[in-house]
Design goal:
Layout: H1 7-16, E1 21-23, H2 33-36, E2 45-50, H3 57-63, E3 75-77, E4 83-85, E5 96-98, H4 99-106, E6 121-123, H5 124-127, E7 128-133, H6 145-162, E8 169-171, H7 172-175, E9 186-187, E10 196-197, H8 200-211, H9 224-227, H10 234-249, E11 254-255, E12 273-274, H11 276-302
Helix pairs in contact: 1-6, 6-8
Length: about 300
């Protein structure tokens, strides 16, 4: 249990951790407490999101979206690694959390179960901080090194302030009963590590590593020669390709094609979405169908 960070504490914690911070106009007094009649806090965890778009700082900090007023997070993290403070109060970012998932972060459990609506729900906006990380969330848009590094620092800064472990760090898809998929996507690299697919487990590992060092610590980065993609071996390339393919195949969901037999235009209907494996299977089927059609056409022209 923790009393929410004040505006000054936010700035001090992030800057001590090496994060470049900007302040959105009015962020110190902007929140959803007065509008909802609900009090933000005590806080028990930090929740991570991707924006599903670029250039969304105004939307996150102030404007919100239809049916969901801003602020939509406490921090907006740009691709450059610059963090913009959006709110020091209650923000509309978490929505309904499954009670079983929330409890695992609250209690800093070593494992975090899949969110189950059957366990009950709580309003996550009451109990969690949130950061919106600028990314399309399409499993193709890459998180730059500077952005991921700042992302780790932001989570570590809050954990360090409250005395939390990285097991208090969660991702929206790990708590939501509304089918949220964020965050996801490839990361350009971190420290001496090359490209990899974002996973909550790896992210918590990176936050844990950071918390084991002083706030001034920075991970070892490769020299320009080491970071040159031309020096990658065939094995390195295959590992990266395999990671990207695996993430695509196991992705949470994609919009199903409108010509699918059981397609539903209703986005609240499960039939509106396909898994990554379903998309890949459909693609193979379509390519084979085109190949058969072209082969038949070629035979007719030869005749």
């Amino acid at each position: 249990m923790a009393i929410p960070l004040t505006a000054d504490q936010w700035l001090a914690a992030l800057r001590a951790e090496g994060v470049t911070v900007e302040e959105y106009p009015g962020w110190r007094t902007r929140g959803r407490d007065a509008a909802t009649g609900l009090t933000f806090g005590p806080v028990r965890m930090f929740l991570n999101h991707h924006t599903a778009g670029h250039g969304a700082k105004d939307t996150v900090a102030k404007n919100g979206v239809v049916g969901l007023p801003g602020p939509l997070a406490h921090v907006y993290l740009a691709r450059t690694g610059v963090a913009t403070m959006c709110s020091a109060g209650r923000a509309n970012h978490a929505g309904k959390m499954a009670s079983n998932a929330y409890a695992s972060f609250r209690d800093e459990a070593k494992t975090h179960p899949a969110p189950s609506a059957a366990s009950g729900t709580i309003d996550g906006n009451d109990v969690s901080y949130g950061v919106e990380c600028e990314n399309l969330g399409d499993n193709a848009d890459i998180y730059p090194r500077a952005q991921y590094d700042a992302w780790v620092r932001i989570n570590a800064a809050v954990c360090r302030h409250h005395g939390w472990s990285a097991e208090s760090v969660g991702c929206h898809k790990e708590t939501s009963v509304e089918g949220k998929i964020d965050p996801r996507g490839p990361v350009e690299g971190y420290g001496a590590r090359g490209m990899f697919a974002f996973t909550p487990a790896q992210f918590r590992t990176d936050v844990t590593e950071r918390l084991a060092h002083p706030a001034t610590w920075s991970p070892t980065t490769p020299s320009p020669e080491e970071d040159d993609p031309m020096t990658l071996t065939d094995t390195d390339v295959k590992k990266v390709a395999a990671a990207v393919v695996e993430q695509l195949l196991t992705a949470d969901r994609f919009d199903a094609p409108a010509d699918a037999a059981d397609y539903s235009a209703d986005k609240t209907n499960a039939k509106h979405y396909w898994s990554g494996r379903s998309v890949f299977s459909d693609l193979v089927t379509r390519v084979r169908r085109i190949d058969r059609t072209l082969t038949a056409l070629a035979k007719k022209l030869e005749a």
